[in-house]
Amino acid sequence: MSIGHVYLVGAGPGDPELLTLKAVRLMAEADLIVHDGLVDPRILALSEAPRISVAKQRSRHTLAQHAINLLLVEEALAGNKVIRLKGGDPFIFGRGGEEAEACRAAGVPVEVVPGVSAALGCAAEAMLPLTHRELSSAVSFVAGQCKGLTDQDWSGLAGKGRTLVIYMGVATGPDIAEKLIADGVSPDMPVAVLENGTRPGARALRSLLADLGGMLERERVQSPAIIVVGEVVDRSDAADCLARFAQQAEKLA
User: Residue ranges of the Tetrapyrrole methylase domain (predicted)?
Assistant: First the structure.
């Protein structure tokens, strides 16, 4: 039996129309699809191949990463064309690098098909330019659930002329705001939260860095969502939640 093939395919932030043509073709040819929990059901419906969910949530995983690696290898060694369908892009906080390494170590052919990362897709929907000739010439991507958050130096990641995009930061939003302010970012720096970007029920919310934790709480923001910090936020279509909160407070008074 000939060895199969593993394709690490980016499914984008949600909207099926943001899939690449190559991703759609490979899904139609697949023998098996191994997918994340964040992959939109509309995308999964594009293929009739058998599916295995390896959904991961905070502190609760369907399969541990080493088990996912083993699953991909075993299915490919059995001769199958395996599509590892991942939200966003496989190589941006998608652990695609680990899965590619496991396949190569086992002698399994592996290919990466890039996808539209959440930062790009969600920002585009909110008309939020991550770079702007007058406001920002640099963009940084960070993970908000990383270990040792308080020990890291974020002083060069956000501020005047720079944009910071934080993935997986809803649960640690207050800590992130405190960390950035402690590292020198102005409390008045504009911040946006883009929730469920390109999906039904998407929201784009705007406030100030000092209010980030409060906004997440009062707006009951849920994952998936990204946080954008920088002056470019003021050029977006995001709703001004700080103003709305003030209006609500006046009515209650």
Answer: 5-212
User: Tens digits of per-residue pLDDT, 186-243?
Assistant: 999 999 999 999 999 999 999 999 999 999 999 999 999 999 999 999 999 999 988 8
110-129 pLDDT tens trace:
999 999 999 999 999 999 99
Identify whether residues 62 and 108 lie together within a single domain.
Answer: yes
Considering its fold, how many domains does the chain have in total? 2
Q: Residue 35 — φ and ψ, nearest 5°? A: -125, 155
pTM: 0.91
Start-end of H helices in the chain:
21-29, 41-44, 65-77, 96-105, 118-125, 173-182, 212-218, 241-252
With a CB cutoff of 8 Å and minimum separation 6, the contacts of 67 are none
Q: CB of 60 within 8 A of CB of 79?
A: no
**Would you say residue 234 lies in a domain?**
yes
Enumerate the active-site residues. 36, 56
Q: Is residue 139 part of a domain?
A: yes
Quote the domain boundaries for residue 53: 5-113
What percent helix, strand, coil does the chain show, rounded to 5? Answer: 35, 25, 40
In a domain, 175, yes or no: yes
